[in-house]
Every structure is written in structure tokens, then in C-alpha cells.
Amino acid sequence: MKREIIVTDDGSTTIHIPEWNEQYHSKHGAIQETNHVFIKNGLSFFSNDIISILEIGFGTGLNSFITFLESEKRDLTIDYVGVEAYPVLTKEIEQLNYVSVLKSDNLKDVFAKMHEQVWEVKNKISANFYLTKRKQFFNEINDKNCYNLIYFDAFGARVQPELWTEEIFQIMHKALKKGGILVTYSAKGSVRRAMQLVGFTVERLEGPPGKREMLRATKK
């Protein structure tokens, strides 16, 4: 499918798929969405010395890069696993402007390293940030009680409903440690019900710019 780079409302870029009329991040602001959904309502709830994170949809690397920036600010140790079935192309990565918009030009090598590193291998990005990228489909994940936090950032249910099913959320539930949380930009009723059916306690929260609500699910 054709893919193109677009600029979102906060000045940051994302990848747009015209055939689906779908983006990797919100057209109302890619960076704003990440900060609201995954940092404010996810990472900020943890003060552990070591936090294990699973990202469903590594994509452009925006979520991992902003998480890295947060780990530097808060002196956190992050063990980050990003799952992606269809890696973004190098020529697309080179057109993304996250480093400059985030005023992190001194860390442009970190963003590049995240994309250049070998897949399926745990890499040390910095003294406190470890990244493993896994090329696999989401229904192939078989981790058990491994993660404090899941960033669920798959393409929307409108275009890929199979990624938002009870089966997928059962896999997510098993992957989380007790007390772990999953955060996602979605607030669809069918998604909330699927989460509840597998045992999650689900909260509706204020959404990022352009969305009224989002969901946070907790494994009790």
C-alpha cells in the first residue's frame, strides 16, 4: 500500500496510509498523543527502579524515543520490547522530525540507533535504557507475567478489527505482571468489553487532542 509522510497538528510528522485513511499516530498531534496516552496515563504511574514495557506496534519509534527521554528525566531504568510485523523503511524514518520537534538534536544518534539496531536482540541504548525489537505478529506473542506496562498502539479497529479482539487482549493479560496496566488511545465499547472479558479492570479516561476518551486496563 502507498504510504506518505504528513505533518500533524502539533508540527510532528507521521505516516499516512491513503488506502485506509489511517495514520501511525493521531493527525491531531503525534507527539501530543504519545505524551498523553502512553506517558501521562501509563509510564507516569510507575516509580519502580526498573520498568518493563511492551509496545504493540513499534512503528516509527516515537513512543520508544519519548519513553527514553522520560527515563533520562526521571532516572528510570527501562527494559523496552517493541513488537512490529512490518518495520518502517529507512527512507521513511529519515523523513520524520521527532528529534527536532522535541528539541533533542543532541540525542539524534539515539533515535537512529533505535532503528538501526539488530532485531530479536536486546540492545543497550544507554546506561538505563534497553531495547529489544521483535518482528512478529501480535497473536504470536507468548510472554507470561513479564511486563509492568503495555503501550497498545495498533492500527485502529476500523481497519484492523482482528487486532482488538478478546483473543488479543487475553495474550496481553497473560503478558502483564499482576498490577500491570495497558494503555491505548482507543475508547470503543467493543474494545472495552473485550478487555473486561479476559479479566481486566478498565477505566475510561480523558482522551488526547481530537479524542474524547481513551482506555486504561489493569491486571488485578
Short description:
Helix 1 (30-40) crosses helix 2 (62-74). The mean pLDDT is 97.
Would you spell out the secondary-structure blueprint of this structure?
Layout: E1 4-7, E2 13-17, E3 22-23, H1 30-40, E4 50-56, H2 62-74, E5 77-83, H3 90-93, H4 98-101, H5 108-116, E6 122-126, E7 129-134, E8 147-152, H6 166-175, E9 176-184, H7 189-197, E10 200-206, E11 213-219
Parallel strand pairs: 4-5, 4-8, 5-7, 8-9
Antiparallel strand pairs: 1-2, 2-3, 6-7, 9-11, 10-11
Helix pairs in contact: 1-2, 6-7
Word description of this protein:
It is a single chain. This protein is α/β, with parallel strands linked by helices. It has one domain: Vaccinia Virus protein VP39 (Rossmann fold), CATH 3.40.50. The chain has helices at residues 30-40, 62-74, 90-93, 98-101, 108-116, 166-175, 189-197, and strands spanning 4-7, 13-17, 22-23, 50-56, 77-83, 122-126, 129-134, 147-152, 176-184, 200-206, 213-219. The strands form two sheets. An eight-stranded mixed beta sheet has the order 6-7-5-4-8-9-11-10, with helices on both faces. A three-stranded antiparallel beta sheet has the order 1-2-3, with no helix packed on it. Helix 1 (30-40) packs across helix 2 and helix 6 crosses helix 7. It is globular and about 45 Å long. The N and C termini lie far apart (40 Å). The mean pLDDT is 97.
